[in-house]
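Dear H.,

Thanks for agreeing to be a second pair of eyes. The structure we're designing against is below in token form, covering all 763 positions.
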């Protein structure tokens, strides 16, 4: 309301007790000397000049009429600044509306009273009460419905509540005053109420009739409630309320106990929508690739080649995402998802996963360990611990999968609704693909998913990123990613041998066994434990590493699968392994010869023992007692006869010389017999081998030659070598073959053995 009015405006308002013409108002103002009070009259600015007057100069009835026209009870009141902020508020909707209505009345009363400064406070209260109750004031309907009449006492009390900042005391919900006093609330010390809650938690589909039947079975047809007006503790029996009363009570009970009932009947919904959850728990993530979260879920759409799953990865810092569409959940899909993400973003520091079998599989753990990535596994049944990827998958399902032909809904209810778009007769005989109009294969869905992520999701502003898109957030970091050579990454992604287990094999003389195949390893000696990886696109080769995967040992080849001549390949393997062994054995043989020239092992041990410091402890002589028996005495007598008491005969020089001759002749005869026996054995062995060779040659076809062994080739080389040194004729073919054979590792290995064992090795 304007507080200053001209004479024309006062006349136009037609106020009680005031002239209705401009001239009449001017005469009254001059007669009463309005313009003599500078606080209530001032010169009018603008065209025409004159005076304008403060409404406070008008008579009380006129001012009251002005206030009635200006005030509208129902305009929302402004809360008193003195009211404490953050005070706990737990009001029902009815109570909040009652409070707002009283605040609106108090606010307009203050305006009404300020316009009548000449009246006292009680007069203000009386006038406002009368005007309000007589509907002389403009009052909005919602205020009249809640507060149809007022009293001076109530109005004055409301004013005090507002000034003291306790505006919530103005809230009134008369139903709350009676809450908790009904029969079902108090019956049997609250046990009836608890039983109803338990029944609802057990089966939310119980009707009021079902519940009443169960209550009657548990408590009988009569329940006991407190006896009002009697001594404390006294009760009276009342009939069990009817179904309608129980129906209303159950409705209110469900509303008041929604959280606890949801927790008991639908734990997943409670965890998703009601469980207290913090905001910003990952604000310590300050750069890209510091933390990834990955998870998987079946796509809510069918493909022409069956239903697929989505494997998704999200970078927590930027919210960038990558998806992989896979036919079946398995560790290989996790590996491919990581390859795709690492090639695009670089290597992360930590990856958060759940404890699903594909995420905690040995292959997945081995891959993460090889790449230097820390894995953080969530607790079982705790999806809230990786909420970012859970929300992304929900976004993917609702924003992307919903648009796909073949969409089957997000729940069983959705699926049924989609099926019902066609009548039962129309669906009869149709395949699932025809029912849901499936058009895309898994590969096509993958292509569309990649485009959706790149052009829509990654470009969309995110609330959690302060309005930035994931791509913009990534670019603000000025981050330099850690990249991995694609060849090394592909090798680390290769499955381990056998497809399960730890992939550890022990090399044997046949090589490395994988399944029913043997992979020969020229550079890996038998007995070596190796970690084996196999290229799924080349089953003829495997790659061997140390058991921890830290060093590459060599390649294994299965000649049958690789398309290599097995005999020629194994010959080459033996040659390479012979060279390897010769290099290893060469310094060992040298040391063995040096050891043979020196003291024997027992002499070395005694020498070391003699060099050790002796202890200062000296054994003192002890008194001993001789042990004697008849047999001991007899033995002593015999030894005395053989030693001290036996006469010694001295030999002359001729006799000693004859003794030496006889000993030498005996030793020579013994050596000749040994040599003769050895030659006989050699001759017998040679004859046996000759007969065996002739027999073998006779049994072979004419166009097949007998297989040469390593030793037979070396024997041939020895014969040629000795013939050359003896000056005998050697054919050019044998000489050329001998020259080439001398350059092979086989010859060097055989010659080393020959040198160690002499010609006995040739037998």
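And this is the sequence the design step returned. I haven't edited it by hand at all.
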């Amino acid at each position: 309301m304007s507080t200053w009015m001209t004479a024309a405006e006062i006349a136009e308002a037609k106020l009680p007790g005031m002239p209705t013409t401009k001239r009449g108002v001017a005469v009254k103002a001059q007669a009463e000397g309005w313009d003599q009070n500078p606080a209530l009259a001032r010169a009018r600015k603008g065209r025409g000049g004159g005076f304008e007057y403060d409404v406070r100069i008008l008579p009380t009835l006129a001012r009251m009429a002005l206030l009635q026209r200006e005030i509208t009870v129902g305009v929302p009141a402004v809360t008193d600044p003195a009211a404490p902020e953050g005070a706990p508020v737990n009001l029902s909707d009815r109570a909040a509306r009652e409070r707002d209505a009283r605040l609106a009345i108090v606010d307009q009363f203050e305006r009404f009273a300020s316009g009548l400064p000449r009246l006292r406070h009680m007069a203000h209260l009386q006038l406002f009460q009368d005007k309000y109750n007589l509907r002389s004031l403009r009052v909005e309907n919602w205020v009249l419905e809640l507060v149809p009449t007022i009293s001076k006492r109530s109005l004055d009390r409301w004013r005090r509540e507002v000034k003291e900042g306790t505006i919530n005391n103005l809230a009134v919900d008369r139903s709350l005053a009676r809450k908790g006093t009904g029969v079902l609330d108090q019956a049997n010390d609250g046990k009836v109420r608890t039983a109803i809650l338990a029944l609802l938690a057990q089966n939310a589909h119980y009707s009021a009739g079902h519940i009443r039947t169960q209550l009657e079975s548990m408590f009988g047809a009569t329940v006991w409630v407190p006896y009002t007006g009697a001594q404390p503790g006294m009760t009276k029996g009342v009939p069990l309320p009817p179904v309608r009363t129980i129906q209303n009570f159950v409705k209110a009970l469900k509303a008041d106990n929604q959280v606890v009932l949801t927790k008991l009947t639908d734990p997943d919904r409670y965890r998703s929508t009601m469980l207290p959850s913090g905001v910003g728990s990952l604000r310590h993530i300050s750069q890209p690739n510091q933390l990834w979260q990955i998870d998987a879920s079946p796509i809510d759409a069918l493909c022409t080649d069956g239903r697929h799953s989505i494997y998704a990865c999200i970078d927590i810092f930027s919210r960038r995402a990558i998806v992989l569409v896979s036919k079946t959940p398995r560790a290989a899909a996790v590996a491919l998802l990581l390859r795709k993400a690492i090639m695009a973003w670089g290597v992360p520091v930590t990856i958060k996963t759940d404890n699903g079998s594909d995420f905690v599989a040995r292959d997945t753990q081995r891959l993460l360990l090889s790449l230097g990535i820390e894995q953080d596994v969530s607790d079982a049944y705790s999806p809230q611990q990786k909420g970012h990827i859970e929300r992304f998958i929900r976004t993917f399902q609702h924003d992307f999968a919903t648009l796909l032909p073949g969409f089957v809904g997000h729940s069983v209810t959705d699926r049924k609704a989609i099926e019902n778009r066609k009548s039962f007769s129309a669906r009869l005989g149709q395949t699932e693909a025809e029912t849901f109009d499936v058009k895309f294969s898994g590969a096509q869905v993958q292509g569309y998913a990649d485009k959706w992520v790149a052009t829509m999701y990654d470009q969309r502003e995110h609330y959690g990123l302060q309005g930035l898109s994931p791509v913009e957030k990534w670019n603000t970091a000025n981050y330099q990613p850690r990249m991995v050579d694609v060849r090394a990454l592909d090798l680390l992604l290769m499955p381990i041998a056998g497809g399960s287990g730890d992939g550890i094999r022990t090399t044997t003389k046949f090589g490395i066994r994988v399944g029913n195949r043997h992979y020969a390893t020229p550079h890996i000696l038998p007995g070596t434990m190796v970690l084996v990886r196999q290229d799924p696109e080349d089953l003829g080769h495997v790659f061997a590493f140390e058991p921890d995967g830290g060093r590459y040992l060599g390649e294994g080849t299965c000649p049958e699968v690789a398309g290599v001549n097995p005999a020629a390949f194994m010959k080459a393997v033996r040659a390479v392994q012979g060279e390897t062994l010769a290099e290893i054995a060469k310094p060992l043989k040298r040391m063995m010869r040096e050891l043979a020239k020196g003291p024997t092992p027992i002499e070395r041990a005694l020498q070391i023992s003699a060099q050790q410091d002796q202890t200062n402890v000296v054994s003192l002589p002890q008194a001993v007692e001789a042990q004697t028996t008849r047999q001991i005495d007899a033995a002593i007598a015999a030894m005395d006869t053989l030693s001290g008491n036996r006469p010694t005969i001295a030999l002359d020089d001729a006799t000693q010389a004859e003794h030496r001759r006889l000993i030498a002749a005996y030793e020579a005869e013994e050596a000749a017999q040994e040599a003769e026996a050895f030659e006989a054995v050699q001759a017998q062995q040679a004859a046996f081998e000759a007969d065996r060779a002739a027999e073998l040659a006779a049994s072979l076809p004419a166009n097949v030659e007998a297989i040469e062994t390593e030793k037979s080739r070396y024997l041939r080389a020895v014969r040629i070598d000795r013939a050359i040194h003896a000056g005998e004729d050697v054919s050019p073919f044998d000489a050329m073959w001998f020259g080439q054979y001398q350059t092979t590792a086989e010859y060097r290995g055989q010659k080393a053995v020959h040198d160690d064992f002499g010609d006995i090795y040739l037998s």
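Two observations from my side: The chain is about 50% helix and 10% strand. Confidence is low (pLDDT under 50) at residues 76-89.

Warmly,
E.
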